[in-house]
Sequence to fold (221 residues):
Amino acid sequence: MKNLASYIDHTILKPETTEPQVRQICQEALDNKFFSVCVNTSFVPMCKTLLKSSQVKVCAVVGFPLGAMSTPAKAYEAKWAVENGADEIDMVIQIGELKNKNYDYVREDIRKVVEAAQGRTVKVIIETSLLTQEEKIKACELSKEAKAHFVKTSTGFGGGGATVEDVKLMKSVVGDALQVKASGGVRDQATAEAMIAAGATRLGTSSGVQLVKNQAITGGY
Fold:
């Protein structure tokens, strides 16, 4: 098993998040060599400053956690985040419009954020726990058509998280064109390794420190 740390977007997205907590996750990301920290956009400038001399990237969530903001609002948030130091954008789709089968809207919503991200990696959160099998497939297809870089399972706020079955399904739809991020409920080594085996190349979790400690103890790398 490859070093789990390289898969981890170290995440802190709760509404009550404080500046000291964000400073702590940045330090943990540096100490453990995580791939990125994942934060709300207001914390992007601080994270960029704290991580500027490292390889740890700054990932910002956009349209989070509901996805129901207007497309111009999402695009502006993505543009602002990039201009203030975000290396990656995790955006939430307009779930209701997907269920309405308004596919042109959903595709354009994603495309405008991809455009606003100016070449940075964009991950599309489809919120699998709220979707039917058909809707999951369509969300992945639309993400691919809109030139996103990843599809992502969950916000962690939608009443459900990542499952191995969903990761396998998403990977089967996007193939090698996009990558898959498993997020929501990835709290132990067995779950993390199962998600990677299913096709995930990134893990969104607030339990990264414990995951890496456990892998070191079990001799996983």
